Amino acid sequence: MRLILFGPPGAGKGTQAKLLAKHHGLRHLSTGDMLRAAVRNESPVGKEAKGHMDAGELVPDDVVNRIVAETLAEIGYDDFILDGYPRTVDQAEFLVEALSDQDAPINAVVSLRVPEEHIVQRLSRRRTDRETGAIYHLDFNPPPADVTAERLLHRSDDEPEAIRTRLEEYHAKTQPLEAFFRAHVRFLDVDGLGSLDEVQARIDEALRGPGL
Ligand code: ADP
Ligand code: ADP
Q: Given this model, what pLDDT does residue 209 score?
């Protein structure tokens, strides 16, 4: 199965992608995680991406398209869930073409709907485990007692100013993708409000449709 998780920053894409990956045996491909690893390793991609990411801006399409193309080739173009990609119409066109060359079309786009007033609340209290990559929320999905405070990362782009820029970028460049997806791919609308388990159950239900 080849899936895309779509939605605004903080919608719960990473959280649900990890659950889907585990339950359906898919690779979780997060361009945010790939880019953060590149920044940590100070690779050429990381050097190009860092300033954009800190500011909350999108990284240029050609940089992101290249790392996605390399990763898809490595894993053989199947059994994956893309999280945080594509984020522009250019990226979507690139992806659709790369996959159609391999006769491996996307089966569905799962779109997580979360109203904006919940987004800031979710992002500002998000914490990530540096060792395992697990995603927590201090109120809604708190880390277990054995995860020490030093292990918990508060992302620098989860500060109010970067959050504002990320939302502007989302509205200007990513939201228009919905029309592109609806025209080209099976598009599944899922309500992203409620507990993690409730959202997961809704996604599983939506994926039970014919042809998936
Ligand atoms: P979010 O919580 O906003 O979904 P991500 O971890 O997916 O965060 O992305 C973090 C940052 O990495 C983005 O703000 C952007 O700078 C960069 N990034 C990730 N994916 C892409 C992409 N597909 N295109 C451009 N930039 C990206
Ligand atoms: P994205 O990848 O779309 O940016 P994340 O999965 O990182 O989103 O989730 C953003 C924050 O919201 C995290 O702190 C996460 O624990 C929290 N979160 C995820 N799903 C829910 C939910 N259903 N209800 C409340 N908080 C959630």
A: 75
Given this model, what pLDDT does residue 211 score?
62
In this structure, are residues 26 and 3 in contact, taking their beta carbons and an 8 Å threshold?
yes
Structure tokens at 46: 């990381």
Domains in the chain, please, with CATH?
A: 2-207 (3.40.50.300)
103-115 pLDDT per residue, tens: 999 999 999 999 9
Tokens 């609340």 label which residue? Answer: 121
* Closest atom of ligand 1 relative to the 169 alpha carbon: 14
Q: Which of 33, 119, 137, 193 to mutate to test the pocket of ligand 2 (most atoms within 8 A of CB)?
A: 137
Q: Which ligand sits closest to the CA of 141?
A: 2
Ligand 2 centroid – CA 193 distance (Å): 10
Beta strands in the chain (DSSP E): 2-6, 27-30, 80-83, 108-113, 126-129, 135-137, 152-153, 187-191
- The count of other CB atoms within 10 Å of the CB of residue 152 is 16
Give the tens place of pLDDT for each residue, 57-83. 999 999 999 999 999 999 999 999 999
| Whether the bond into 86 is cis, omega within 30 of 0 | yes
The finding on whether 137 has its CB within 6 A of some atom of ligand 2 is yes
Question: Of the bound ligands, which one is closest to the alpha carbon of residue 6?
Answer: 2
Strands of 48-161 (E only): list them. 80-83, 108-113, 126-129, 135-137, 152-153
